[in-house]
């Protein structure tokens, strides 16, 4: 399943007025997007002695914490060979091959080239990367960690001789110079210094959250100039259909009621009974990245996140995971059977009963082992933003972490299990949030249709 | 309703069950144009689940599927059932039920996905009984695997539990975990008998597979898997449609048209529900309409050119009707509680009587320990014993946890006298006659059933059983086969080893109707494998043409 995390920047970049102001800016005469790759540089320096196992292991760990694989791997494709196609209103962004193949990947990159791409968004040929690549976040990485990652990509990753399709965006986003201008505005942060492995807990947590895991890329809302609003750090933002929730320390709008252990469990397994579970982009972040972090790092990351200043969300007045209770199951049986060709749209309670109750229970309590989570005391159902619930119904859950493959089928037009209409999904979601969550949020069929269009395309 | 000019394709398929839809999927993915004509309507899971929840008689697995008048199917297994009319000494043993709608009868089945044994294809050669198939196990092996991957079949590691059908690849998924009841049963068989209990290969997910979830053991595979963990033909319909195959629901095919030489089929004709007639042309035709309906259609298409029906120069269309007619008993174990009903319905089988030299005189059989919820039966039994109040509740609990249900699949044999004909009395809403079947259980199967009864009595004794309830007579298993039998000689068979009719070079049949012997396992996987082999043949002929 394609990772959609890196779509967000695009969703803001290619919509709204900000884009017009960007593209109106001058200095596009030297547009590097149209120029061929730079003439072959001097061949990379003769291979030095094989790198130490420690350095390779560190590089792999840093690359995992930075979650490179999620974006640079196509569905069913070879790791890091790129080719993931991200549909935006302006065209498709396709991730690149970052295996060490010299012709198709980054095999000719020197350490310096690599550093420029990772921390500054500049390709080896001098052109600008699209900021789907979170280099603004990565600019906080230490020199040593960039070096370790470089060594691992060159020696620990298998070269793949495949060139993914070229990204072709519509005007003006097709002008990579636009990105140079954007960079002037977005800027970058100074790299951390010293040995990141020796930081104290809170500094290590901040480093993990910002320079590596780039949490803010999704969870921090953006300003008119598309930069993260630092005074709303991690306060929640829409994410191409999904909603990356407020994870500040607010007790009502954020995750201020969570313990450090709760958050560690969430990041390790994607699921905390009675609180929440990860699906969509966060499910993938857990699967590919956070579930592979050491316990010490998870605790550092959790401790740092839990002290982020509270930011309130006007729509959320009560902790998302504290709504609802088991339903005293009403008898909705009519005793009447319908003929097999009568496929009339059903009402919320019947849609729930026929499609959800088998796993989540007629009372909504889920299974006793929590494989199918309870729908009450559940952040996704209790949220004032029903986006993630709608997207979960459409898209399902497919997350492997902590030794468990959590799976729920989607109910969109491509489902083999059951295809629900926009009207049915709206009725279902309104029934579920009013029965087990924070109330009926008035989801409409049109809203569901818009979100359906955001689903990843099946290859 | 599609416009008439749309009604032409390279391959026209009649029937959208596992056979028809999987052929459509394979062909469409190879770029071949396909039209599938389905007599019944489009359907979906949520309405069946809703019907199941509304259904009073939960074990009635035809119950949640009230049919449409233009494509009737049997309402249940009783006699008379107002659709499939059976006659003869063992009429009640041939009350086969099936479904006519998009996706076919695998909407309700138990997911049992056996490969046949090599000996099943050579019954005559090895044991002097019945008939040989016009193909061997090895011819079908690659297609068995293809079918297992398509359906998502879980099964045991052959190195640990060899089921007797050689495999080149492991099962696509690991075998099901053993339920508590099955574990008790396994222990008993291991400790007190010379027999063994094996994992039944099952077309259900033991891990997320093909965008469907893992089986959670809801225990109502029949009549409807509520979560889509078990395979049914609707997935192949969806996959074929995504690949470009066109499905026409509510299209009741009633006539098969041939050229003047009567060598090639040129078109099929169907009625819509208002009896408007439509003609569909193609280069190749596949009838994949279930054993009963396939033979019915071929007989009903009789005309001046073929007064006995299509592809029927042998006179064998509609003959050789077989099943795994079996024996069933429930009883109350006097040993520890088993608590059946937690997990899929059918997962554990005694396979010691599946093959042996005795097959020269009596049929093979499988014994299923059926792991279904027994509260219905326990309640009826407790009430009949006169319990009331608190004691009634205790008795229901005790009986439901101690009930054992066993049934067998016994091997039928091709007998031309067991015959499907068109009813002279009963017609459906479109004026098409109902099917009628004469059935007399072959002596070979009777002997097999006697042997099974003996085994069941021994097992009841070993479990200190009481309150035996034997299903009277014989138990139909809904595995009809043989009505367009396969063979090498066009004089006594309808199709060849590739399921092509001897009489019409561009007409294929994909159904259990081609089985030459009914085999020693549930029929569906073999139906799917034969269908995929038909698709392979068609792909070769159409792409090389």
TrEMBL record, chain B:
Which stretches make up the Glucose-methanol-choline oxidoreductase C-terminal domain? 476-531
**TM stretches of this protein:** none
Report which superkingdom the organism of origin falls in: Bacteria
Q: Which keywords does UniProt give here?
A: FAD, Flavoprotein, Oxidoreductase
E.C. number = 1.1.99.11
Q: What Pfam families would the database entry show?
A: DAO, GMC_oxred_C
Q: What InterPro entries does this protein map onto?
A: FAD-dep_OxRdtase (IPR006076), FAD/NAD-bd_sf (IPR036188), GMC_OxRtase_C (IPR007867), P2Ox-like (IPR051473)
Cofactors that this protein relies on: FAD
Q: What is the enzyme's main class? A: oxidoreductase
**Span of domain FAD dependent oxidoreductase:** 10-43
Q: What would you give as a GO molecular function for this chain, any one?
A: oxidoreductase activity, acting on CH-OH group of donors
Tell me which family the UniProt entry assigns to this protein: Belongs to the GMC oxidoreductase family.
The entry's protein name is Fructose dehydrogenase large subunit
